[in-house]
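Figure 6 in text form: structure in, sequence out.
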């Protein structure tokens, strides 16, 4: 179960309405039960940054997203649905608990068989849990590899909060951050996705698969 008072607790839960908070904690608990992990702190955020847990990443994304949302509202007048935004920030990587390849213990989804894009499985879980189309669709399309991205203010804020947090983990793991990669993904004409990483301290390499 999620303990919001624990030192390693999820950020942002207190910002949610009681109904959304209950829905968020219930879907996380349900997904943890389906996963090989005992909690979000046990799951890695990415195979390339094994010391950066999913809990660390989610908390970084929630805190960054809160700052960006406040700035965008106060300086640019952007309208933000805070209950939806915080739920999106908290749940955007929910399916990482179930995706194979992040851990040898993760067997719930064999990506080599399904090639299931990151975000899609999370969106299914959130739809079944009764979340709004804004939350479901934003999570479904949030990956940098998604061919389509949401146009809402909440999707805009999630994108930059997510990449900011991901780049922090890459910089502290001696991996070239996305902002220094000249071209980190391309979709070939046949629809397949190739990855190319180039940066000041890392030679070009193709074929590495990653989810953010
Ligand atoms: Fe993600
Ligand atoms: Fe993320």
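Output sequence:
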């Amino acid at each position: 179960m999620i303990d919001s008072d624990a030192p390693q607790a999820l950020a942002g839960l207190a910002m949610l309405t009681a109904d959304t908070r209950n829905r968020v904690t219930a879907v996380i608990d349900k997904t943890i039960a389906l996963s090989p992990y005992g909690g979000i702190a046990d799951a890695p955020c990415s195979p390339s940054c094994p010391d950066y847990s999913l809990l660390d990443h989610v908390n970084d994304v929630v805190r960054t997203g809160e700052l960006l949302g406040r700035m965008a509202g106060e300086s640019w007048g952007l309208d933000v649905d805070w209950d939806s935004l915080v739920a999106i920030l908290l749940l955007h990587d929910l399916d990482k608990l179930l995706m194979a390849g992040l851990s040898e213990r993760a067997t719930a989804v064999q990506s080599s068989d399904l090639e299931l894009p990151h975000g899609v499985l999370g969106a299914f879980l959130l739809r079944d849990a009764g979340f709004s189309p804004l939350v479901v669709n934003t999570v479904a399309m949030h990956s940098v590899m998604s061919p389509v991205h949401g146009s809402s203010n909440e999707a805009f804020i999630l994108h930059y909060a997510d990449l900011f947090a991901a780049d922090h983990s890459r910089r502290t793991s001696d991996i070239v951050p996305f902002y220094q990669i000249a071209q980190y993904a391309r979709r070939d004409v046949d629809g397949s996705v190739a990855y190319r990483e180039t940066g000041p301290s890392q030679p070009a390499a193709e074929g590495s698969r990653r989810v953010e």
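Caption detail: Residues 13-180 form a domain with the Hypothetical protein af1432 fold (CATH 1.10.3210).
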